[in-house]
Design goal:
Immunoglobulin-like; globular; four-stranded mixed β-sheet; ten-stranded antiparallel β-sheet; 307 residues; Glutaredoxin
Length: 307
């Protein structure tokens, strides 16, 4: 569900149709590029801005992972708006290589993730991200443009959640429509993530942690680790919470998406996964994360919301 400008990067970073191509910096041994991983950025509310950095060379693609990098977000070409700057910190895909504390180049099979900066854009429009870092003794500066809307396209914090009756293990459908990992006649995995509905959680006044992801067909390879992380949170997290995984595709071969996914995360200008939503017991969306999330941060928010 996400666009990639470099095919080899498909296994590493979720990049989307609303992000533009980043500038490339040529250094010894290859060239660096930056791409915005966030979708559905909007003004006048706190945003988690995520950006990926990679190096292309004759040996293939490596990702910049770990540590923190300098970042400045400015209105494009002197447009209206207040610049933001600070440090963007690494957020790795769950289950991949640990953060070593210092930016370094890694193979996507070892570690993959993005750098995150939290801030609020005061005006909509085209913005520019400038990032700087040093790796292997060489300073690198990159920039890329991205769009900030005046309001969110997808469900957002503070809004009422859709009372969605998503597919579950009790639905009379092809198991792959419930979880794309149910291939070749296999049963639906992680059945406890496919037992409850969003509508049911809200009706019962229970908090819900809902992940929209397609583990098998996800281009970024973030979805499978994210589902695994949700399963772990379901095991160790508060018991008064419904943990729900919603598969994106009803039929991948026919490019048919599930109604729940279309309602929540499919829009003409914002179609991406994975997305994680935290819904409060009163049915209000308390928070959301995409494409990546820090499980410890999610767990802190979850305990606060669930009570």
């Amino acid at each position: 569900m996400a666009r990639l400008t470099v095919v080899l990067l498909a296994g590493a970073i979720a990049l989307t149709a609303c992000s533009s191509g980043g500038t490339t910096s040529a250094v010894s041994g290859g060239s660096y590029s930056a791409e915005v991983g966030s979708t559905d950025l909007y003004a006048k509310a706190p945003q988690r801005f995520q950006i990926g950095v990679f190096r292309s060379s004759d040996q293939g693609v490596q990702l910049l992972t770990s540590g923190a990098i300098d970042i400045q977000l400015t209105p494009f070409q002197g447009g209206p708006g207040t610049p933001l700057q600070g440090k963007a910190h690494y957020v790795g895909a769950p289950g991949t290589g640990a953060d070593t504390g210092t930016p370094e180049l890694t193979d996507p099979s070892t570690a993959r993730g993005v750098y995150e900066f939290d801030g609020t854009f005061d005006t909509p429009g085209v913005w520019q991200a400038n990032v700087g870092f040093q790796v292997e003794g060489e300073p690198v500066s990159l920039s890329t443009e991205f769009q900030v809307s005046d309001k969110p396209e997808l469900p957002a914090p503070g809004q009422q959640a859709f009372r969605t009756k998503n597919l579950t293990v009790r639905s009379h459908v092809n198991p792959r429509s419930v979880d794309s990992r149910a291939q070749g006649g296999a049963s639906i995995p992680d059945r406890d993530l496919h037992t409850d509905t969003i509508a049911g959680a809200i009706a019962a006044h229970r908090a819900a942690l809902v992940l929209f992801a397609t583990p098998v067909y996800c281009r970024s390879q973030f979805c499978g680790p994210s589902v695994d992380s949700l399963q772990q949170m379901a095991t160790t997290g508060p018991r008064n919470v419904d943990y729900i995984h919603i598969e994106i595709f009803k039929n991948f071969e026919k490019k048919q998406v599930n109604a729940a996914a279309r309602q929540w995360v499919i829009r003409p200008d914002a179609a991406s996964d994975p997305w994680l939503f935290l819904i409060a017991p009163n049915g209000t969306i308390a928070d959301r994360w995409g494409p990546l999330f820090d499980p410890s941060q999610v767990m802190t928010e979850l305990r606060r919301v669930a009570g």
